[in-house]
Amino acid sequence: MGSAGPARRAESTGRWLGTMCILGSLFGWSSIPLFLRYFTELVDGWTANGWRYAVSAVLWMPVLVVGFWRGTLPPGLWRAALVPSVFNVLGQVAFGLAPYYVSPGLMTFSLRLQVIFVTVGAAILFVNERRIITSRGFLVGMSLVVLGTLLTIALKPGGLGTGSALGVTLSILAGLGYAAYALAVRKCMHAIPPITAFAAVSVISAAGIFAAMLVFAPRAGMGVFELSGKHLFLLALSSIIGVGLGHTFYFISIARLGLAVSAGVVQLQPIFVSIGSMYLFQEVLTGGQWAMGVVAIAGGVGDAVHAAPAGEAGGDAGGG
Questions:
Q1: In terms of CB atoms within 10 Å, which end of the chain has fewer, N or C?
Q2: pTM for the full model?
């Protein structure tokens, strides 16, 4: 009985910390599409992507340097991180370019299809999870995600148009890339501590995204140095929040609250992004779009709850 009180207090503290961290991930990841939309008026997408991930490499490099110095880096770390990094680069490139064609709210609602991709992929790759895709709860949730997302897109006033259609396509491709990344991490890096795994993927991804910037960005991305100190600070801040703190908080929340709760909470991202976009960029969703968006989110939360207990990877819901 004497140890019950401290144990309960420790559990309560852990849940409080987990709650703060998952809210930190939710608000942090919700800010990233808004940051990216803001940058569209300053630099091209290749440049924003390249320099933001360069900052992320600096953020995560100490984890790898300390591990190398102590001799604790897992054998085969870089080889295991290669495939996940390729998918992460593809997802991040699509994610970084999408705001140049579509508004942040519609972008993040379109990104919700990631839930479908990651869960179906898990059912295909991992034998013990194939029962998930045939369960009634998952099928209902999947139907709600697909229906809600497609109707949110279709109900856009005036239709999509060529530009918005490209932006929605890029958003869906970003969801597909992030889903493949999450599945590849689980397949290739399951024995590696999460922080070390993400540090290695982040550094390799930064190299790939920076190389893409040198090839595709105007002036090889060097135009970033013409930005004001304020804009350079915001560019770096978006990387710290999205790629640094967002993922760290997410890992902590999973450990404290479990994957089902954590993955379910971050499904609310499109709501916060849409509210922020309304105030910052005058993006207005119609009542019908809001209703269908909520349907899609409800389906995504349901899928996260059904998939997580079986060990589903969950993926990076917010992107960085």
A1: N
A2: 0.86
